[in-house]
Amino acid sequence: MVRSTIIVRASDSLPLAASVDDEQTEQALQEHKQQSKLICRRITINSEPRCSIESGPYTLHYLISDNVIFLTIADKSYPRKLAFSYLDELSKEFATSYGPKVEQVRKPYAFVGFDTFMSKTARLYQDQRTAAAASSSLDRLNDDLQDVTRIMTKNMEELLWRGDSLDKMSHLSTSLRSESEKYRKAARKINFDAMLRQYAPLGGVALIIIIVLYWKFW
C-alpha cells in the first residue's frame, strides 16, 4: 500500500507539499523519509523521469513532471504500475491546481492544502483491486505506465553508499557509443599506418624505378 508522499520542486529540492501522516507512520518511515529527501537532492535534469528505488521492506517510487518531483513510499509488494498510476494522478491534479505558481514560491510547503487530494487519492489506491478498477475505468494508464519494465529500478544501498547516480542510462549508452566510435577511428588510423609501413618501401622503390626509366627513355 501507499504509505507516504512528498512533492518537491526539482530545481532546488524545495518541498511543496506532503501527506499528513500519523505518528505511527512517522516513526516507521523516519529513515525512509530521510532517504526520500536525499533522493530529491540528488535528482538532476538528466535523471530518470520515473524510477523505483528499493529500500528494505519498502520501495520509493518517484516521477518528475514540469520541474516537480512526486515521490511516494510504498510497500515493496505493492505493484509498481499502481504506484506510478497514483503519482500520475497527483502530477496531473497538481499541475492543474498549482502549475503556474510552482516557480514563484519561496517558502516550503506552500501548497500544503494539496494534502486533501493526496489523502483522498491514497485511500483509493490502498485497495489494489479498487485502484486497478479505477485506473482502468478512467483510462489513466498510458503505454509507459503499462510497460513497467521501462521504469528504472535501483537499490538504495547502491544509490546512497556506492555513489551511484540517478542520471539516465541513455547518457551512459551515448557515452559508450561515442567511445566506441573514437576507438573505431583510432583502429582505422592504426591499420592505415601499418599499411603505410608495410607498403611504403615498395612504393619508394617503384617510384625510383619509374623516375629512372622516365629519364632514360624520355
From TrEMBL:
It is a single-pass type IV membrane protein. Keywords: Coiled coil, Endoplasmic reticulum, ER-Golgi transport, Golgi apparatus, Membrane, Protein transport, Transmembrane, Transmembrane helix, Transport. Residues 137-197 form the V-SNARE coiled-coil homology domain. One of its GO terms (biological process) is retrograde vesicle-mediated transport, Golgi to endoplasmic reticulum. One of its GO terms (molecular function) is SNAP receptor activity. Residues 6-118 form the Longin domain. SMART domains: Longin. CDD domains: Longin, R-SNARE_SEC22. It is found in: Endoplasmic reticulum membrane; Golgi apparatus membrane. The chain crosses the membrane at residues 199-217. Signal peptide: none annotated. SUPFAM superfamilies: SNARE fusion complex, SNARE-like. The keyword Metal-binding does not apply. One of its GO terms (cellular component) is Golgi membrane. Its main location: endoplasmic reticulum. Belongs to the synaptobrevin family. This is Protein transport protein SEC22. It comes from Cylindrobasidium torrendii FP15055 ss-10. The lineage of its organism: Eukaryota, Fungi, Dikarya, Basidiomycota, Agaricomycotina.
